[in-house]
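Possible regression after last week's pipeline update?

I re-ran a chain I had predicted before the update to compare outputs. Posting the input and the new output here so someone can diff against the archived version. Not blocking, just want to make sure nothing changed silently.
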Amino acid sequence: MSVADRRQREKLALRQEILAAARQLFAKEGYESVSMRRIAQKIEYSPTTIYLYFRDKQELIHELCEETFSLLTKKIEKALSAGGDPVEMLKRGLRAYVEFGIQHPNHYQTTFLTRHDGDHEKVLEESAGARAFQCLIEGVTRCVEAGRFREVDVMGVGQALWSMVHGVTALQITHCNGFPWIDRDRLIDLTIDTAVRGLLR
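New output (post-update):
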């Protein structure tokens, strides 16, 4: 390996270290409470080093959100790839969403449960988040086109289902202890089945 290649790998490794530290701090302490200096302290580098990789905190969290949405999209697409009945496909995609959040709580909390600044409409249009939501919309569209849903407002149904899976995911992440939950898998399946059943003809 050449010196240039080694340096490039070291830069990429440090960049990922910065992102991992920021993700953990944003999830634990909140976006507004965490400074670039605080992130630098966590990885034991100077704040100047952080600014070599990210212009500001907004650019940093945007990168974190992009990463989360990309991973989420892959998981949903994998769940949908088996094909079959459109309603069952949609339910698999919804379950994949919940499972992703539970398996990656810091990713989910930073992206979906952290308030941060920025032009959200523009960010959504240009982000991996739009692709993740499009997976859900495509699943709903298949159900509507197959005549399985009595509600044909695809965007409305998509947003309602997203609100539902977000709710159960957020509760499992933020209140995983201290509440007498039923079995997690049963809760997830019951929530999704109940929501989808209400849409069927």
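Follow-up from reviewer: compared with the archived run. The chain has a mean pLDDT of 91. Marking as no regression found.
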